[in-house]
Amino acid sequence: MEYRQLGKTDLVVSRICFGCWQLSPKFWGEVAIEPWHEALKAALDCGVNFVDTADAYGDGYAESSLGEYLAAQKLRERFIIATKFYWNFEGKQRHPDTRYEYILRECEASLARLKTDYIDLYQIHAFDPLTVPEEVGAAFGRLKKEGKVRWFGVSNLNVEQMRMYGRHFEVSSLQPPYSLLSRTIESSELPYCRAERIGVIPYSPLYRGLLTGKYARDHVFTDSRSSARYFTGTPFQAIMDGLDELRPIAADLGLDLAQLAIRWIATHPAITAPIVGIKTPDHITGIAKAVEAPLPVDLWHRVAGIVAAARQAADEAADRAARKPAGV
Ligand SMILES: NC(=O)c1ccc[n+]([C@@H]2O[C@H](COP(=O)([O-])OP(=O)(O)OC[C@H]3O[C@@H](n4cnc5c(N)ncnc54)[C@H](OP(=O)(O)O)[C@@H]3O)[C@@H](O)[C@H]2O)c1
């Protein structure tokens, strides 16, 4: 496993991060906990020392599951733990919340669920239009002073928003969506983070599994993916066509499509470590191989071009379907 310094912090993280969103039944259905525990163990065995979760994943369930397992196995010190706050799920309707008192309260709740007395990387999950960044900065300053959090990061923010928050606390990392199928951060956020030495830990690097190419053409998704743009009908078939074009390229490199998609991301110089969503040990074993070497530049562009063409065909198909009158 390769390791890289996260931005300007003293955290040295594996180039693969173990993502915990999968323990959110609302989005992913029920995930068996035993294989998930085994996956955490398998992650350690292949050198993964970095795990990403959030208070809101399963309304605390992902943090509790992680905390209980790490405490029982005495593994806390073996992992760099990143978690997030933003979604206040105390009432019936969850809503964004980054107010001073809420951050302090929610950080205590995360520490209790994670069964730890410090969080390595505490991230604001998204931009909150109602709270001024000064307030977030003040809460972060206090958490740092009290030794409850080591470093702070942001997620789903653009450059302007990072600059705004950056005036009130040190932004050590950005967690954006990034994959062969979602590349909007390439022209702005990635160059900015590179110039400012902000670590980048992209989420959904496999586009929620789609880029693994492991689903049959007649596969029916039964979780939240069933209503997502590229996961059904003609758009799904168009993406599958693109993935079929990638298979020989992956095979020539001795990789499967999941590994190729991760190698493609990890090759970008701004990327610290993609966060891969894991349910079972087989999701994590083998992924380490993806970051063993970069893709040659010409191949990086070729792979990107194939998926961009497939995505364009999928978008055209989705737009055509949306224009069709009902019942036709
Ligand atoms: N900050 C944010 O707003 C945000 C948003 C989303 C995610 N995240 C974080 O990023 C993580 C990853 O994102 P994600 O879960 O959306 O998507 P992802 O990593 O692109 O996809 C995860 C899915 O890919 C499949 N998979 C994973 N590894 C595989 C392997 N080696 N071989 C074959 N299939 C594999 C599994 O699909 P099956 O379930 O079909 O087996 C898994 O559920 C999350 O767990 C979370 O920590 C953050």
Features of the shown structure:
globular, TIM Barrel, alpha/beta, two-stranded antiparallel ribbon, eight-stranded parallel beta sheet, binds NADP nicotinamide-adenine-dinucleotide phosphate, single chain, 328 residues
Query: Could you name the CATH topology?
Result: TIM Barrel
Just name the CATH architecture: Alpha-Beta Barrel
Q: Which small compounds were modeled alongside the protein?
A: NADP nicotinamide-adenine-dinucleotide phosphate
CATH class: Alpha Beta
Low-confidence stretches: none
Tally of DSSP helical segments: 11
Domain tally:
1
Strand order of the largest sheet: 11-10-9-8-5-4-3-12
Largest sheet: 8 strands, parallel
Entry summary:
The protein contains 11 helices and 12 strands.
Question: Your description of this structure?
Answer:
The protein has eleven helices and twelve strands. The strands form three sheets. An eight-stranded parallel sheet has the order 11-10-9-8-5-4-3-12, with helices on one face. The chain has helices spanning 25-28, 33-45, 61-72, 100-114, 133-145, 159-166, 189-196, 233-252, 257-267, 281-284, 297-323; strands spanning 3-5, 12-14, 17-19, 50-52, 80-85, 87-88, 95-96, 119-124, 149-155, 173-175, 199-200, 275-277. The chain has one domain: NADP-dependent oxidoreductase domain (TIM Barrel), CATH 3.20.20.100. With 328 residues, the chain is of the alpha/beta class. Helix 3 packs across helix 4, helix 4 (100-114) packs across helix 5 (133-145) and helix 8 runs antiparallel to helix 11. Residues 19-22, 52, 125, 155-156, 175, 203-209, 212, 214, 258, 275-277, 279, 283, 287 line the site of NADP nicotinamide-adenine-dinucleotide phosphate (NAP).
